[in-house]
Structure formats: structure tokens, C-alpha cells
């Protein structure tokens, strides 16, 4: 069962370095100060991997522009940013053309929490590239402590009026909406497999 963990950007970059700097992963952007966090991730990748790291916007890029951006060059680190979210058609198009997106360097999908459900629903083949490598960025690029995690779980439970166990049961029954707060809740509970 894949778990989403909260990792500092340094640790995410180290994981890529250990893997031989290849592969795909997802980093869920913090709700606040997402642009500054994206800049920190880019800087950390460049520092650890000792190679350029570029941000490529998925919108409004056409598929041809995206393929060209990923392959020229094809060995640096690329952060694909979904911005405010992608339409179902764009996810499906990316999924159909997934083999043209494979490259030597790592690909990091920078997504909002709510976009993970769309990735899973509309781009299952790209989701399989990612596997269990989904990380929740802390607001300052740091690891959330156990106390902070528990506090946030309590906030979510109080806000929605049901427990984490009930959230898991609802997700298993496909009764939990794909809203960002519910994605975050499942991530914090270590039940990203239910997305």
C-alpha cells in the first residue's frame, strides 16, 4: 500500500539522486505560498543533483511543445507544474502519449492535492510511472512533525464531523469527494492508495 509522506525538498532530491536521477514522482504543493515552495524545490534539485532543474507548465503547452521541452535536453530535472489544475481531456491526452514523455532525467509532477484524483482517474498509466512516490510538501519545505500531523488530522476531523477511520471507510466505498482536504486527509492517514 503506497503511503504519501511529507518530505523536505532536500530528501526528495536525495531520493532522486539515489535512484540514479531517473523516474517520475509527484510532489503535492502546499496550499499557501506554492510559488515560493516551487522555487525552493527547483533550487534544491539543482543543488543535490548538480544539474539544471526546469519548470515546465502543463498549461497551455500543446503535447508537441511538452514533448520537445522534455527532450531538449532529456537528462536534466523537469518539474511539470499543473498550475490551477488540468482538464480531464488534457490528462487523458498525456496518458495516451505517455511513452513519448519518457526521458533519461527525472520528472516531478507538481500538483495541487485535488489533482492526484484526476491523475489517478484520467491518467492511470502516468500514475503507474509514479507508483508510491508521492510526497506532500510541507509549507516551508520541511517535514511535518508527528505533533503537527496529529493536529492537522484533528482539525480535519472536527471540520468535517467524522473520524479518520470514517474517512477511510468512505474512501473505500467511493463516497469521499475528491476535494483537496480529503486528499490531504488520506495522505496524512497513510492511505494514499485509496485515491
Could you explain how this protein is built, in words?
- With 195 residues, the protein is α/β, with parallel strands linked by helices.
- The protein folds into 2 domains: 5-143, Rossmann fold, CATH 3.40.50.300; 145-195, no CATH class.
- 49% of the residues lie in helices and 14% in strands.
- The protein has 10 helices and 6 strands, in the order E-H-E-H-E-H-E-H-H-E-H-H-E-H-H-H.
- The chain has helices spanning 9-18, 34-49, 63-71, 88-96, 98-101, 115-122, 124-130, 146-160, 164-172, 180-188, and strands at residues 5-7, 24-28, 53-57, 77-81, 107-111, 134-137.
- The chain has a 6-stranded parallel sheet with strand order 1-6-2-5-4-3, with helices on both faces.
- Helix 8 packs across helix 10 (180-188).
- The protein is globular, with a radius of gyration of 16 Å.
- 32% of the residues are buried.
- The model has no long low-confidence stretch (mean pLDDT 81).
List the helices and strands and how they pair.
Blueprint: E1 5-7, H1 9-18, E2 24-28, H2 34-49, E3 53-57, H3 63-71, E4 77-81, H4 88-96, H5 98-101, E5 107-111, H6 115-122, H7 124-130, E6 134-137, H8 146-160, H9 164-172, H10 180-188
Parallel strand pairs: 1-6, 2-5, 2-6, 3-4, 4-5
Helix pairs in contact: 1-2, 8-10
Rounded to the nearest angstrom, the distance between the terminal CA atoms is: 11 Å
Largest sheet: 6 strands, parallel
Summed over residues and divided by their number, the pLDDT gives a mean of 81
Q: List SSEs in N-to-C order.
A: EHEHEHEHHEHHEHHH
Helical stretch tally: 10
Assign the CATH architecture of the largest domain: 3-Layer(aba) Sandwich
User: What would you call the shape?
Assistant: globular
